Amino acid sequence: MPSEKLQIFYTGATGYIGGAVLQLILQHPTASTFAITALVRDAAKAQLLESKFGVKSVVGSLQDFDKLTELAENAYIVVHTADATDEAALKAILAGLKRRHEKTGDVPHLIHTSGAGVVADDARGAYLASHIYSDLDVAALDALPPTAPAHAADLLLVKADEDGYARTYIIKPGYVYGTPSGPLYDAGIAKKTTIMLPWLADVFARRGRAGVLGGGKNVWACVHVHDNAGLYYRLFSKILEDPSRLGHGREGYYFSENGECTLYDMCKAVGEALVAVGVATEAEPNILSPEECDKYFGKYGALEAVRMFFANVRCRADRARRDLGWAPTHTPDEVLKTAREIVDAVVEKQGLKTKA
Question: Could you give the CA distance from residue 54 to residue 206 in angstroms, rounded to a whole number?
Answer without folding.
Answer: 43
